[in-house]
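User: Quick sanity check before I run a bigger batch. Here is a single chain. Can you write out its predicted 3D structure?
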Amino acid sequence: MLQDGGFLTSDQVKSVRFDPIGEGMGFVGDVARLYIEYSGGSDEAPPTLVVKIAVSNDEVRKFANRAGLYVAEIGLYTELGQNLGVRIPRFYYGATVDGYFVLLLEDLSHLRVGDETRLGSLEDAEAAVRNVARLHARWWDSEQLAGYQWLYRPLDPMSAQFRQQVYLDAWTAVSGQLQSVLHADVYEIGERLGPKLAQIWSTASVPALTLNHGDYRLANLFFDGDQIVTFDWQFAQHGPPAIDLADFLVWSLTDDQRRIYETSLIDLYVETLVENGVQNYNREQGLQDCRLGMLRNLENYVISIPNLAMDSAPGQAWVDTVSPRMIALADWDCGALIPA
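Assistant: Done. Predicted structure follows.
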């Protein structure tokens, strides 16, 4: 793979060992750090890499392929990566075959990674919001994105119908468990959401479309001084603005933090869009998009739980940390977006 990409021209790989990363947290991909030894002691290729492959679970892998998650991540690195507008890990190799995939990326373990199970700082939150606003501004109403068939489109009626069925299946599987961890108001929203999910998204009125990361939270960000490296792009999508902002507000802030800072962070998001050339978008539209995005937060939360290793400490810690944060949907009255 390194030779194919031109990263190894005068040497050969002698040995490779690997250490799994994030065990118990993988949804559709397994990740490991590779430690590589070269036969000639080469310094032209990296001594470590991160590899991502399809999960071994047949049903989850089939779901990932139906949803286009593997081809989306590779497509982003190979077709958009150099001009994305935000920093991403260096790409070394990517391929899909027969429902499996492999992705080789730069090892950034020397940088500080965010963690939504811990208390973040306002400085990190502001940096993250500016970062995603620059991404959105770069691709605001871009006609180019329409040409990438691998990009997920949440407003597409067929896509919305597919997600509705996935959500309903997941809700049936975990609703009993969720009743004990979700606030009653949020649980009621979750129960009502399933049968109406496709209708909500296929009829949504939005001011513009842009490129969304699709899973924008602290755990998918590396902090390198005043720069951010954004990774884990398998949910990349062409959709409404502020979806990523809603992701961040819910997944990466405690309830107290969100309630204190959400107004200023939304203002910062809109200001950064304007600074980067976006016109005719205001705070009121940002609030409306965030409410729609928060319904999607609940959707992703519900469909993630059946695929977490709940007997692992990381999996249980994630559920214990994130579940109370779903109260944002009640705070924002997101249930009002669900048709009767």
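DSSP finds ten helices and ten strands in the chain.

User: Great, the batch can go ahead then.
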